[in-house]
Specification:
Elements: H1 5-9, H2 13-27, H3 41-46, H4 48-77, H5 86-115, H6 121-132, H7 139-156, H8 161-178, H9 186-212, H10 214-217
Protein name: Integral membrane protein
Keywords: Membrane, Transmembrane, Transmembrane helix
Organism: Nostocoides australiense Ben110
Protein backbone atom coordinates (compact mmCIF):
# COMPACT_ATOMS: atom_id res chain seq x y z
CA UNK A 1 0.00 0.00 0.00
CA UNK A 2 1.48 3.38 -0.99
CA UNK A 3 2.23 5.89 1.73
CA UNK A 4 -0.01 8.88 2.24
CA UNK A 5 1.35 12.39 1.90
CA UNK A 6 1.32 12.81 5.69
CA UNK A 7 3.27 9.57 6.18
CA UNK A 8 5.90 10.79 3.73
CA UNK A 9 6.21 14.10 5.57
CA UNK A 10 6.34 12.67 9.11
CA UNK A 11 10.11 11.96 9.22
CA UNK A 12 10.87 15.54 8.18
CA UNK A 13 9.05 16.98 11.19
CA UNK A 14 12.20 16.22 13.16
CA UNK A 15 14.20 18.56 10.93
CA UNK A 16 11.56 21.25 11.41
CA UNK A 17 11.82 20.77 15.19
CA UNK A 18 15.61 21.07 15.00
CA UNK A 19 15.36 24.29 13.00
CA UNK A 20 12.87 25.65 15.54
CA UNK A 21 15.27 24.92 18.40
CA UNK A 22 18.06 26.77 16.59
CA UNK A 23 15.67 29.64 15.92
CA UNK A 24 14.58 29.81 19.55
CA UNK A 25 18.16 29.84 20.84
CA UNK A 26 19.26 32.44 18.28
CA UNK A 27 16.33 34.83 18.63
CA UNK A 28 15.86 34.81 22.40
CA UNK A 29 17.28 37.86 24.14
CA UNK A 30 16.40 38.37 27.79
CA UNK A 31 19.82 39.03 29.30
CA UNK A 32 23.22 40.46 28.42
CA UNK A 33 25.12 37.77 30.35
CA UNK A 34 24.64 34.01 30.24
CA UNK A 35 24.03 33.58 33.97
CA UNK A 36 21.02 32.52 36.08
CA UNK A 37 18.91 35.38 37.40
CA UNK A 38 20.39 38.01 35.09
CA UNK A 39 17.39 38.83 32.88
CA UNK A 40 16.46 42.52 32.77
CA UNK A 41 13.25 44.29 31.77
CA UNK A 42 15.14 46.69 29.52
CA UNK A 43 16.80 43.95 27.46
CA UNK A 44 13.52 42.07 27.09
CA UNK A 45 11.62 45.19 25.97
CA UNK A 46 14.41 46.22 23.58
CA UNK A 47 14.15 42.83 21.84
CA UNK A 48 10.42 42.26 22.27
CA UNK A 49 9.67 41.10 18.71
CA UNK A 50 12.63 38.72 18.72
CA UNK A 51 11.48 37.25 22.03
CA UNK A 52 7.96 36.77 20.68
CA UNK A 53 9.42 34.98 17.65
CA UNK A 54 11.58 32.87 19.96
CA UNK A 55 8.52 31.68 21.88
CA UNK A 56 6.77 31.02 18.58
CA UNK A 57 9.63 28.69 17.65
CA UNK A 58 9.10 26.77 20.89
CA UNK A 59 5.37 26.42 20.20
CA UNK A 60 5.95 25.12 16.67
CA UNK A 61 8.69 22.80 17.89
CA UNK A 62 6.39 21.25 20.49
CA UNK A 63 3.71 20.62 17.87
CA UNK A 64 5.97 19.06 15.26
CA UNK A 65 7.74 16.93 17.89
CA UNK A 66 4.43 15.18 18.51
CA UNK A 67 4.28 14.36 14.80
CA UNK A 68 7.93 13.24 14.95
CA UNK A 69 7.08 11.01 17.91
CA UNK A 70 4.65 9.18 15.64
CA UNK A 71 7.31 8.83 12.94
CA UNK A 72 9.74 7.29 15.43
CA UNK A 73 7.09 4.94 16.77
CA UNK A 74 6.21 3.81 13.25
CA UNK A 75 9.87 3.21 12.43
CA UNK A 76 10.61 1.13 15.53
CA UNK A 77 7.26 -0.65 15.37
CA UNK A 78 7.95 -1.87 11.82
CA UNK A 79 10.33 -4.58 13.06
CA UNK A 80 8.91 -5.29 16.52
CA UNK A 81 7.01 -8.49 17.33
CA UNK A 82 3.37 -8.47 18.40
CA UNK A 83 4.25 -6.78 21.70
CA UNK A 84 5.51 -3.23 21.11
CA UNK A 85 8.21 -2.20 23.57
CA UNK A 86 10.86 0.27 22.42
CA UNK A 87 8.44 2.05 20.09
CA UNK A 88 6.03 2.74 22.94
CA UNK A 89 8.77 3.95 25.30
CA UNK A 90 10.34 6.19 22.65
CA UNK A 91 6.96 7.66 21.72
CA UNK A 92 6.26 8.42 25.37
CA UNK A 93 9.67 10.06 25.74
CA UNK A 94 9.04 12.42 22.83
CA UNK A 95 5.59 13.27 24.19
CA UNK A 96 7.13 14.18 27.56
CA UNK A 97 9.73 16.27 25.73
CA UNK A 98 6.95 18.21 24.02
CA UNK A 99 5.32 18.71 27.42
CA UNK A 100 8.64 20.09 28.69
CA UNK A 101 8.63 22.58 25.83
CA UNK A 102 5.16 23.66 26.94
CA UNK A 103 6.46 24.62 30.37
CA UNK A 104 9.33 26.50 28.72
CA UNK A 105 6.71 28.53 26.85
CA UNK A 106 5.03 29.27 30.17
CA UNK A 107 8.24 30.54 31.80
CA UNK A 108 9.06 32.64 28.73
CA UNK A 109 5.68 34.35 28.79
CA UNK A 110 6.09 34.90 32.52
CA UNK A 111 9.25 36.85 31.73
CA UNK A 112 8.16 38.66 28.57
CA UNK A 113 4.53 39.65 29.06
CA UNK A 114 4.48 39.20 32.81
CA UNK A 115 7.29 40.56 34.94
CA UNK A 116 9.09 42.55 32.21
CA UNK A 117 5.90 44.24 30.99
CA UNK A 118 5.06 45.22 34.57
CA UNK A 119 8.67 46.27 35.28
CA UNK A 120 8.55 44.00 38.33
CA UNK A 121 12.28 43.43 38.79
CA UNK A 122 11.87 41.29 41.91
CA UNK A 123 9.57 38.85 40.12
CA UNK A 124 11.73 39.05 37.01
CA UNK A 125 14.82 37.96 38.92
CA UNK A 126 13.02 34.96 40.43
CA UNK A 127 11.52 33.93 37.09
CA UNK A 128 14.88 34.37 35.43
CA UNK A 129 16.43 31.69 37.63
CA UNK A 130 13.74 29.18 36.64
CA UNK A 131 13.83 30.29 33.00
CA UNK A 132 17.59 29.68 32.81
CA UNK A 133 17.10 26.01 33.70
CA UNK A 134 13.87 25.60 31.75
CA UNK A 135 15.51 23.03 29.46
CA UNK A 136 15.63 20.62 32.42
CA UNK A 137 11.84 20.30 32.16
CA UNK A 138 12.21 18.34 28.94
CA UNK A 139 15.40 16.55 30.01
CA UNK A 140 13.81 13.38 31.40
CA UNK A 141 11.61 12.92 28.35
CA UNK A 142 14.48 13.63 25.98
CA UNK A 143 16.84 11.20 27.73
CA UNK A 144 14.16 8.50 27.63
CA UNK A 145 13.40 9.19 23.97
CA UNK A 146 17.07 9.02 22.99
CA UNK A 147 17.77 5.81 24.89
CA UNK A 148 14.64 4.01 23.67
CA UNK A 149 15.07 5.22 20.08
CA UNK A 150 18.70 4.13 20.04
CA UNK A 151 18.13 0.72 21.63
CA UNK A 152 15.05 0.13 19.50
CA UNK A 153 17.02 1.09 16.41
CA UNK A 154 19.70 -1.42 17.35
CA UNK A 155 17.25 -4.20 18.17
CA UNK A 156 15.33 -3.85 14.93
CA UNK A 157 18.26 -2.71 12.77
CA UNK A 158 16.14 0.20 11.53
CA UNK A 159 18.85 2.79 12.22
CA UNK A 160 22.54 2.76 11.25
CA UNK A 161 24.44 1.09 14.07
CA UNK A 162 26.71 4.08 14.64
CA UNK A 163 23.75 6.45 14.82
CA UNK A 164 21.81 4.21 17.20
CA UNK A 165 24.80 3.90 19.54
CA UNK A 166 25.40 7.66 19.43
CA UNK A 167 21.71 8.20 20.21
CA UNK A 168 21.92 6.00 23.31
CA UNK A 169 25.03 7.94 24.35
CA UNK A 170 23.14 11.23 23.97
CA UNK A 171 20.38 9.83 26.16
CA UNK A 172 22.81 8.85 28.91
CA UNK A 173 24.56 12.23 28.76
CA UNK A 174 21.21 14.01 28.77
CA UNK A 175 20.09 12.11 31.87
CA UNK A 176 23.34 12.94 33.65
CA UNK A 177 23.02 16.59 32.67
CA UNK A 178 19.50 16.71 34.02
CA UNK A 179 20.85 15.29 37.28
CA UNK A 180 23.43 18.08 37.45
CA UNK A 181 26.42 16.17 36.09
CA UNK A 182 28.23 18.19 33.38
CA UNK A 183 28.61 18.30 30.47
CA UNK A 184 25.47 16.25 29.80
CA UNK A 185 23.22 19.30 29.69
CA UNK A 186 24.92 20.39 26.48
CA UNK A 187 23.05 17.56 24.74
CA UNK A 188 19.83 19.51 25.08
CA UNK A 189 21.17 22.71 23.56
CA UNK A 190 24.07 21.88 21.27
CA UNK A 191 23.44 18.37 19.93
CA UNK A 192 19.63 18.18 19.92
CA UNK A 193 18.91 20.14 16.70
CA UNK A 194 21.63 18.36 14.75
CA UNK A 195 20.40 14.97 15.97
CA UNK A 196 16.85 15.83 14.93
CA UNK A 197 17.95 16.91 11.46
CA UNK A 198 20.18 13.86 11.04
CA UNK A 199 17.45 11.51 12.25
CA UNK A 200 15.00 13.03 9.77
CA UNK A 201 17.34 12.40 6.84
CA UNK A 202 18.04 8.81 7.95
CA UNK A 203 14.38 8.00 8.59
CA UNK A 204 13.20 9.52 5.31
CA UNK A 205 15.83 7.58 3.38
CA UNK A 206 14.85 4.31 5.04
CA UNK A 207 11.19 5.03 4.36
CA UNK A 208 11.93 5.62 0.68
CA UNK A 209 13.94 2.39 0.38
CA UNK A 210 11.26 0.41 2.19
CA UNK A 211 8.45 1.62 -0.06
CA UNK A 212 10.47 0.59 -3.12
CA UNK A 213 10.91 -2.99 -1.89
CA UNK A 214 8.86 -5.70 -3.69
CA UNK A 215 7.39 -6.84 -0.36
CA UNK A 216 5.99 -3.39 0.36
CA UNK A 217 4.66 -2.90 -3.16
CA UNK A 218 2.92 -6.26 -3.02
Amino acid sequence: MPLTRLEKLLPWTGAIAGACWIGHSTLQSVTETDKPGSATSQVIRDHLLLNYASVGCLVLMGIVLLFFATAVRNLLRSTEPAEATWSSIAHGGWVVTAAGLSQMVMWNWGLIIGAAAASDDAALKSLSYVHFFGWAGMGIGLATAFIATGLGGLAGAVLPRWFAIATVGCGVLGALGNAGVPPGGLVNYVLLPFWLIGASVIMARRQRLTTRSPKHQA
